[in-house]
Structure formats: structure tokens, C-alpha cells
Amino acid sequence: MQFATIQPTASRPDLPAITDAEAAALARATVNLFRAWQLSDIEARTLLGDMAQRTWARWKEGSIGRIDRDLRARMAILMGIHKGLRYLFSDPTRGYAWIRKPNANFDGRSALDIMMRGEITDLIDLRAYLDAERGAW
Fold first, then answer.
1. N or C: which end of the chain has fewer CB within 10 A?
2. Distance (Å, whole) CA 117 – CA 23
3. This model's pTM is above 0.90
4. How distant, in Å, are the alpha carbons of 25, 88, 136 from that of 71?
5. Pseudo-torsion of CA 80, 72, 75, 128, nearest 10°?
6. What is the arithmetic mean of pLDDT over 10-35?
């Protein structure tokens, strides 16, 4: 049996990285989003990859320090979730509340329950679900 050679996937240096200024703006937007979602500090820190309590406290005060690549990705995905909810719900309050509501598609769990498992893939899956719900697939 002859097997085809698998070519390595090339890196994509042409894709723009999230700049430091964009990451700081994402952090401020994330703090505001979490306020709108009425998250506890523990919930917020979990969604941000188990962020340290002191770091989260500084963020809430407006002091944003260095943000690593993984945290930048988490925040970008969270903004995508927010965007998906804004598309689905004309009333923002309904979208904010939806995060905590039990959902039959999640076996009775809420979107927050799914996200609170703490893995970045849980955030990605929720974003994909919302994209599919609004017909992006």
C-alpha cells in the first residue's frame, strides 16, 4: 500500500497578531462585558484562564499589564461570543441574561456552565454554536 506524503502546514506570518494596544483595549472591553454578564470575580478569572486574583483586581481598576498570547486569544473569543449574542438578541439585556439560562442544547446547562469548565476549547465551542445559530455555517 502506498501512502501520500503529508506536507507540513506553513506558518502564517501574514496574519496580523493582536498588538499590545489592541490587547489592552480587549482587556478593558472584557472587564465591561463581565460586568454586563454580572460575573463574580471567580467566574471572570476562570474564563480568563485562571487569572491571578491580584491581576484581576488591577484590571478592574483599569491597570492593565502585560498580556500573553493565550489570554489575548481568550479575550478575542469572548468578544466573538458577545458579538454572536448581539446578533441573536436585539435587546442586549436578553443576551446578557442568556449566558446564565439553562439551555436544552447544552443538556440543561447554561452557556456559563460550559465556559466555566475553564478550557479555551469550551469558549471556542460556544462561539461556534452561536455562529451556527445565527446562520454563519
1. N
2. 24
3. no
4. 13, 26, 25
5. 40
6. 86
Q: CA 75, CA 47: separation in Å to the nearest integer?
A: 9
Q: Cell numbers 473569543 correspond to what residue? A: 77
Helix, strand, coil abundance in the chain, percent, nearest 5: 60, 0, 40
* 79 within 8 A of 102, measured Cβ to Cβ: no
The 10 Å CB-count burial string (b at 16+, else e) for 41-58 is eebbbbbbbebeeebbee
CA nearest 105: which of 76, 125, 80, 78?
125
Name the strand (E) or helix (H) holding 81.
Answer: helix 69-88
Cα distance between the two ends of the chain: 37
DSSP secondary structure of 22-55:
HHHHHHHHHHHHHHHTT--HHHHHHHTTS--HHH
Reported as a single tens digit per residue, the pLDDT across 38-88 is 999 999 999 999 999 999 999 999 999 899 999 999 999 999 999 999 999
Q: What average pLDDT does the chain have? A: 91
Residue ranges per structural domain of the chain: 20-133
